[in-house]
Amino acid sequence: MLIAQITDLHVTREGELLSGRVDTRKALTLCMKKLSSLSPRPDVLLISGDLTETATEEEYAFINDKLSTLGIPTYVVPGNHDDRATMRKAFKGMALGQDEDPFCYAVDKTEWPVLFIGLDSTIPKNSEGALCPERLEWLKDVLQKATPSRPALIFMHHPPFTTGIAPMDACGILQGLPAFRQLIEDHSNSIAGVLCGHVHRMINSSIYGVPVLLAPSSAHQITFDIDPDASLTFTLEPSKIALHSWTEDNALVSHLIYVDDFPGPYAF
Ligand SMILES: [Fe+2]
Fold first, then answer.
1. Tens digits of per-residue pLDDT, 172-183?
2. CA distance 214 to 205
3. What is the CATH number of domain 2-258?
């Protein structure tokens, strides 16, 4: 099974550039073009948060319009720039619950070899993340459906580990992390991996042997700077897409591809 993951699209309002210099609407258009060109095509697309910059209905409508040209089953979770209620309207029926409830759900299709779990790690109107007891209780229940031969693949916005990128760690998950890690340990033989975003860089880790993969943005990246006093800056590194393959050996094999061609430092 081929699983595409994009994250941190930060689609802006029409006519606006992000920070005055990044055309995130064009980045999404190019991203869809790249995904459409892949052969074989991904079976599913996961979007791990920060779909929009300001969470307007128009920004989500733009995204849905682009997704409709792709025609791949798509599942989303909110990031700190999103709004649960507006997402519920834009992605009707994806997550149960009332407007402001956490946007959590499982996708359990018997024809697919993994159980997808969309886990909302956000706190409304906050950059920081949280995994409250209610969400963890829900996760514990849904993980009962996962088995070693048909494991769960969790996707969420905030990474459940400290990355070393100080300004992003400062807005990481502030609540529930020890209990989340305990759940991962308890079900480690039934979880294929945890996919996340938020930091706009590729960073990989593991929790009790379970791979935790942080995908870079399909638009703009955050500067690599592991100085503890670093401040938050963007860098115009290429936009990227993560492609995860769940193989017949029950292994998660992950690739990163560029959204657009990049000439690199080579002379031809
Ligand atoms: Fe983001």
1. 999 999 999 999
2. 8
3. 3.60.21.10
